[in-house]
């Protein structure tokens, strides 16, 4: 069986559920590759007519909004002890440095940290729970959550699908190459996200060192 024929047998419902669940869990606070799954599924929709891009985008938006809302409620109930527990369970994602970086973003941008955080890997898993921990008013959180979910998930689906349709004939002729490119794109996105996280952590450590450094003593005058 050719790869194209195999792809045609993949149930559309399973793709919709996978995208919605993974993005929802990531938005809830569990470090999963939601962006990679969304891009890969959208490229698949561009080459397979039985997968509806509108339904795919709707599932992605729903997963983002619902997941963030659940994360908010969990964070509001769990408070700071929740962040400490997450730091022990997921030290690479919820380290003290990452939490401090996310908190500074919330202090600087307020409710729009939720919107902006949708486009930044580090903040994407923090936005919901941290907004709850910091007791941001839910109506502010909901506005930024819905706008961020629609623009990020819906926008990503629309852009990637449009690019995929432009190259539809090429993808159908060389479907296996299309899958390889999707995989490479996903791996590249993951590496970029890791690089951004390390850069943010380094900046946080530098800022912390600067704050704790003792001021240089000036000799008293005669």
UniProtKB/TrEMBL annotation:
Residues covered by the VTT domain: 32-160
UniProt entry tagged with the keyword Cytoplasm: no
UniProt xrefs under InterPro entries: DedA_domain, VTT_dom
Membrane spanning residue stretches: 15-46, 53-74, 109-134, 141-162, 174-193
Coiled coil (residue ranges): none
Family, similarity comment: Belongs to the DedA family.
Descriptive protein name: DedA family protein
């Amino acid at each position: 069986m050719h790869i194209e024929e195999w792809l045609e047998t993949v149930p559309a419902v399973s793709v919709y559920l996978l995208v919605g669940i993974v993005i929802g869990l990531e938005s809830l606070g569990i470090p999963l590759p939601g962006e990679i799954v969304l891009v890969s599924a959208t490229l698949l929709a561009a080459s397979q007519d039985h997968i509806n891009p509108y339904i795919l985008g709707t599932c992605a938006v729903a997963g983002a909004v619902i997941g963030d809302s659940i994360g908010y409620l969990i964070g509001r109930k769990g408070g700071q002890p929740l962040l400490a527990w997450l730091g022990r369970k997921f030290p690479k994602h919820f380290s003290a440095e990452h939490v401090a970086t996310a908190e500074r973003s919330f202090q600087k941008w307020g409710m729009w940290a939720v919107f902006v955080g949708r486009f930044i890997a580090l903040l994407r898993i923090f936005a919901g729970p941290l907004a709850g921990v910091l007791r941001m008013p839910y109506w502010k959180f909901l506005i930024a959550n819905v706008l961020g979910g629609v623009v990020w998930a819906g926008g990503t689906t629309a852009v990637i699908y449009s690019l995929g349709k432009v190259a539809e004939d090429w993808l159908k002729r060389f479907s296996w190459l299309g899958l390889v490119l999707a995989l490479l794109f996903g791996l590249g996105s993951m590496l970029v996200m890791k690089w951004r996280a390390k850069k943010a952590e380094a900046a946080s450590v530098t800022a912390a060192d600067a704050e704790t450094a003792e001021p240089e003593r000036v000799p008293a005058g005669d």
